[in-house]
Amino acid sequence: MIPKLHYISQGNTPTQHLENIQKACTCGIELVQLSLIGSSKKKLLNYALQARDITAHFQTRLVITDHYKIAKQVKADGVHFTSVDSFPTNLKASLYSWQLTAGTARSVKDCEKLLDKQVSYIYLGPYKISATVPTTISMGLKGFSNITDKLKTGTPLIGIGGINTTDVTSILQTGLSGIAVSDAITTDFNSIKMFHDVLKSSATAEQRYKMP
Predict the structure, then answer these.
(1) Which candidate, 173, 130, 78, places its Cα nearest to that of 199?
(2) Which of 100, 130, 187, 202 could bridge across to 162 with cysteines, CB 3.0–4.6 Å?
(3) Comparing C-alpha atoms, which of 173, 116, 119 is closest to residue 142?
(4) Where are the domains positioned within the chain?
(5) pLDDT at res. 205
(6) Cα(170)–Cα(38) distance, rounded to whole angstroms?
(7) Segment 82-93 mean pLDDT
(8) pLDDT at residue 120 greater than cutoff 80
(9) Residue 104: beta bridge partners?
(10) Omega before 126 cis (within 30°)?
(11) For 40-58, what is each residue's pLDDT tens digit?
């Protein structure tokens, strides 16, 4: 089962990414995507190993952005491709059978391509313009609804792009399964609890925050 709330790592340096992953895990996040762009493969492998140690301690799922060979090497829980066209041929044959595969879509056509690749889930966005998903075109609620109306699938669709706690209820009403957040969580890691509350997330998350 795919968690309803994902944290996409953020920071000015790789060290900050790792520190923020630690904070997110401490506050109860259930899936983290390590999103380090521009690092050499050797350095990224080192950072991915550190991220794997952090997430393993908290029993949090770790997904690596784009680098599927590193995802396999560190035994991350999966790999996420930022572009539909960047998927390698026979990806699943290059990974462990239990590893998740995912990609970001910006249209029905993108979604259909990803579904043909039998991905575990799809990021759909951007909902709003954000640093995480740099583009000049946002989908908004109407865009989400248009895609879910045309796309009949059991594969989880996860909204992404400038999402705050006040956006969640309306986004779920469009038919999406959950959300991926970067800015709002990095700004305030305590917002993870608020996101979980609004999402009515998993029983595990609810129990974690239940007062004694």
Answers:
(1) 173
(2) 130
(3) 173
(4) 5-205
(5) 39
(6) 35
(7) 87
(8) yes
(9) 123
(10) yes
(11) 899 999 999 999 999 999 9
Q: Token pair of 44, please?
A: 């990224």
**b or e along 44-62 (b: 16 or more beta carbons within 10 Å of the residue's beta carbon)?**
bbebbebbbebbeebebbb
Over residues 139-156, mean pLDDT: 95
| pLDDT-based confidence at residue 136 (cuts at 50, 70, 90) | low
Which CA distances in Å does 89 have to 70, 71, 78, 211? 17, 16, 16, 48
What does the block give as tokens for 191?
Answer: 């917002």
- Cα 83 to chain centroid, rounded: 14
pLDDT in tens, 152-204: 899 999 999 999 999 999 999 999 999 999 999 999 999 999 999 999 854 34
Assess if CATH 3.20.20.70 describes domain 5-205: yes
**pTM to 2 decimal places:** 0.90
